[in-house]
Amino acid sequence: MSAKRSNICVFCGSSAGNDPAFAKIARELGGLIADRNMTLVYGGGNVGLMGAVADAALDKNAKVVGIIPHSLEQKEVAHRTLTELHIVRTMHDRKRMMAERSDAFIALPGGFGTLEEIFEVITWAQLGIHQNPCAFLNVAGFYDGLIQYLDHAVRSELLKPEYRQMLLIETDAGRLLDAIQAYEPPDVAQWIEPDET
User: Fold this and answer.
1) Strand-pair partners of 169
2) Starting at the edge strand that comes first in sequence, how are the strands of the sheet with 7-11 ordered?
3) Both ends of the chain: CA-CA distance in Å?
4) Pick from 42, 46, 56, 57: CA 20 to 30 A from residue 162's CA?
5) Are 99 and 106 in contact (CB under 8 A)?
């Protein structure tokens, strides 16, 4: 039986993009996280899709945890009214803390940073470093091309089908949160980190 997952990490753009559907789904997701008594963990900005998802969760009194590196505090305009705002030293520190504070990961539309963040945690899941669900909220077909690439990687025998099946992909925020709660991790070999001592 799957464990209750209440700390939802959302990766998304610090820009809003040119399709109003992006901000709409970000606000919807933030509101649903609040409605389900979950905690939002995200990149700590108050602009773009980052700001939209955080504001929607805060508007419904959800707990919102923002994590932002010092170098991006001004560029991404750190959100000052969060439940918790952590200003960390590096991007690696940000990603590590986001992973430590979360038990599920969702990618909304975004650019290089969003993809880098979600694919890192997907890779960790593939290696058995964690057993948390990794998901794409595919609004307005934004991730259609990426999904085609992943399926092509499977056909090319560069990505195992069981790893492709680990990814949760939905177009509806409520269905995606339902899928996260129902997620059962596959039985994969645990990656053993080398001893640093």
Assistant:
1) 136
2) 84-88, 63-69, 39-42, 7-11, 104-107, 134-137, 167-170
3) 37
4) 42
5) no
CB 108 within 8 A of CB 25: yes
Comparing 115-119, 154-158, 167-171, 189-193, which segment has the lowest mean pLDDT?
A: 189-193
- pLDDT tens for 124-134 read 999 999 999 99
Q: How far, in whole angstroms, is CA 114 from its chain's centroid?
A: 8
Contacts of 12 (CB under 8 A, 6+ apart): 26, 42, 43, 48, 49, 50, 53, 107, 108, 109, 110, 114
To the nearest whole number, what is the mean pLDDT of the chain? 93
What are 141-162's pLDDT values in tens digits?
999 999 999 999 999 999 999 9
Tokens 């999904």 label which residue?
Answer: 147
Domains for the chain: give ranges and CATH numbers.
7-179 (3.40.50.450)
Residue 159: partners with Cβ closer than 8 Å, 6 or more residues away: 150, 153
- For residue 85, give the 3-state DSSP assignment: strand
Given a contact cutoff of 8 angstroms between Cβ atoms, the answer to whether 113 and 98 are in contact is: no
Q: How far apart are CA 55 and CA 146, in angstroms?
A: 28
The pLDDT assigned to 58 comes to 98
